[in-house]
Structure formats: C-alpha cells, structure tokens
Amino acid sequence: MSIILGKPQVRGKSDVLFNYDVSADIAAGTAVKRTGETSVAQFDGAGIPFGIAGYVDLKGQKTIAVCEAGKSIGVLLDNPNETITAGSQVFLTENGKATQISTDNTPTGAIFVSAKSDGINVLTDQVEGQAALIDMIGGL
C-alpha cells in the first residue's frame, strides 16, 4: 500500500492541521517553515521547520494544508537508496526531505515509524521507494 504524502495515516486527537498561504509550490511530504503569521515556505535548512506540507487547499489558489503534529505522517525521503529503520530519529535536509543521516542535517523531535515505501504525491502520481511514515505527536 502506498503512503499518502503530507497526511496523517492515523487520525485522532494528536492531529494538528492548518492552512497557510504560500508564494511558491511546495512538494507534499516536505518540511515547511514560517515566513509570516499566515504564510509558509519549503524548509531550506535555514529557520525552524514546524510542519509537513500536505495538499493545495483550493485549486488555483496559493493555500496549502500543513500537518503540524500527528501520527504516521507521510514524508518524502531525501535518498531513495537510504535504508530507513523504524524508531530512528528524523533529520531534515536543506531541501525539506527526511533522512536518518545526522551529519549536516537539522534534527527534529520526530521518529520514523515505517521503513521506506512507495508514496503518492499531490498529483496522485506514484513516487516509488521515496516515502516513509513518521510520528511527530508533539510537532517537529
């Protein structure tokens, strides 16, 4: 079964999802940072990541859903050849993608809860071997 990027697979009281304005496209499953009170941009290694980008809220408008906390959230992996171990800490690369590699990457409070898998991005296109699930119950 494919992982839906940017969406909690386990729904419940741990979910925190909000919509934010964006000035440029952000890939579903990548980390975001705040650029204003109601706006975000894709995490680029600078600033503080706080959520995972989901889907464009309304077609043709620049509003995106962001998962700020939750269980089993689908994320894009930085390297499709990397082996992901459930229970390991999530680090973010400067392109906002998840990895287990700590060197030169931003640490988070999230953990991987699955090995890598296929994913489905915002366009419902298959992303083969480039997704995993993370828990970030208290946020990133």
CATH C-level class = Mainly Beta
Task: Write down the secondary-structure element order.
Answer: EEEEEEEEEEEE
Mean residue pLDDT:
90
Count of runs of 4 or more consecutive helical residues: 0
Question: Could you list the spans in which at least 5 consecutive residues all have pLDDT below 50?
Answer: none
* Count of distinct strands: 12
Do you know the CATH topology? Answer: Virus Head Decoration Protein, Chain: A
Largest sheet entry: 12 strands, mixed
What is the count of structural domains?
1
Percent in helix: under 10%
Class from helix and strand fractions:
mainly beta
What CATH architecture do you see? Beta Barrel
Give Rg in angstroms. 13 Å
Q: β content, as a range?
A: over 45%
Approximate shape:
globular
What's the end-to-end separation, in Å?
A: 25 Å
Describe the structure.
This protein has 140 residues and is mainly beta. 0% of the residues lie in helices and 49% in strands. It has a single domain (3-136), classed as Virus Head Decoration Protein, Chain: A, CATH 2.40.300. The chain is globular and about 35 Å long.
